[in-house]
Amino acid sequence: MALKVFLTGASTGIGEAFARHYAREGVQLGLVARSGDKLEALAATLSPRPAIYSVDVRDRAGMNTAAADFIQRFGVPDIVIANAGVSKGTLTEHAEDIDVFQQIFDINVIGMVNTFHPFIVPMREAKQGTLVGIASVAGFRGIPGGGAYSASKAAAIKYCESLRVELKRDGIAVVTICPGYIRTPMTAVNRFKMPFIIGVEDAVKRFARAIERKASFAVIPWKMGMAARVLRILPNWLYDLAFTRMPRKPRDDELKKKDAA
Ligand SMILES: NC(=O)c1ccc[n+]([C@@H]2O[C@H](COP(=O)([O-])OP(=O)(O)OC[C@H]3O[C@@H](n4cnc5c(N)ncnc54)[C@H](OP(=O)(O)O)[C@@H]3O)[C@@H](O)[C@H]2O)c1
């Protein structure tokens, strides 16, 4: 029987590449994103035709309805990938950035919880399933100018770890993937050098291999994994020295000003 994969953030970047990758393997997909038009256009190019759900991952009821529809039409998915995410530069002294903090946490953390929630009981009954959280190496240390994003991804890493241990005895695997820099619309706005950056097709092939072997934790690409390992053990004084002068991700206002210039 064909594998079934339910995937959020499928309209662009990593999610879109995941959809194309799994469709090539004959997987029955359920695709979630807010942009219904982009999902429609993508679905029209894929076979078997995916089920599409134009839902915001912050909408708990909407996510429950999408999950119930997918299960009713195709059965319990083998793999659920919580990939939807946003990244924006933030600085705490700007009052308007507090709303951005809220948005990033709601999408990157609560959106992940909303994605997994409706599948846990059905997967437990089926005694199988894999939940995949797309976190980030940005969750290892606090990235200056990206406090909201780093904190949200650190939360995602710890949340997935809790879930992994909670569900182990139910036969449900939880895979945490921490991508380094991947070429997608999310990184296209960065004006700084992105070490070890890789293409999205290549990245997704590597992610899919980690998911297939039910890796508990994977940093991809591996070179970024090595760098991240060093980063994690770096003493604070050395980390501060290295990162104080790092270029930071621009805030929305700064991006608009740049675009207007
Ligand atoms: N690219 C990288 O270098 C990199 C590195 C580390 C981690 N990541 C993580 O990988 C994931 C995918 O990133 P990407 O690079 O592919 O970014 P992207 O091209 O900007 O795609 C983000 C996807 O998430 C969806 N999304 C955003 N907010 C949503 C919401 N509220 N509800 C439903 N869907 C939502 C977007 O669709 P709509 O706008 O249509 O809703 C889009 O499909 C993110 O979690 C990101 O943090 C990326």
Helices, strands, pairings?
Elements: E1 4-8, H1 13-24, E2 28-33, H2 36-43, E3 51-54, H3 60-74, E4 79-82, H4 96-126, E5 129-134, H5 147-167, E6 172-179, H6 185-188, H7 200-212, E7 217-220, H8 222-233, H9 236-244, H10 252-260
Parallel strand pairs: 1-2, 1-4, 2-3, 4-5, 5-6, 6-7
Helix pairs in contact: 1-7, 3-4, 4-5
Bound molecules: NADP nicotinamide-adenine-dinucleotide phosphate (NAP).
Q: Strand percentage, roughly?
A: 5-15%
Give the helix tally. 10
Give the mean pLDDT.
95
What is the 3D shape? globular
Number of domain modules:
1
CATH fold-level name = Rossmann fold
- In spatial order, strands of the major sheet run 3-2-1-4-5-6-7
The span between the termini is 55 Å
Q: Helical content, roughly?
A: 40-55%
Structural class: alpha/beta
The hetero compounds bound to this protein are: NADP nicotinamide-adenine-dinucleotide phosphate
Strand runs, count: 7
Q: Give the helices and strands as they follow along the chain.
A: EHEHEHEHEHEHHEHHH
> What is the radius of gyration?
18 Å
CATH architecture annotation? 3-Layer(aba) Sandwich
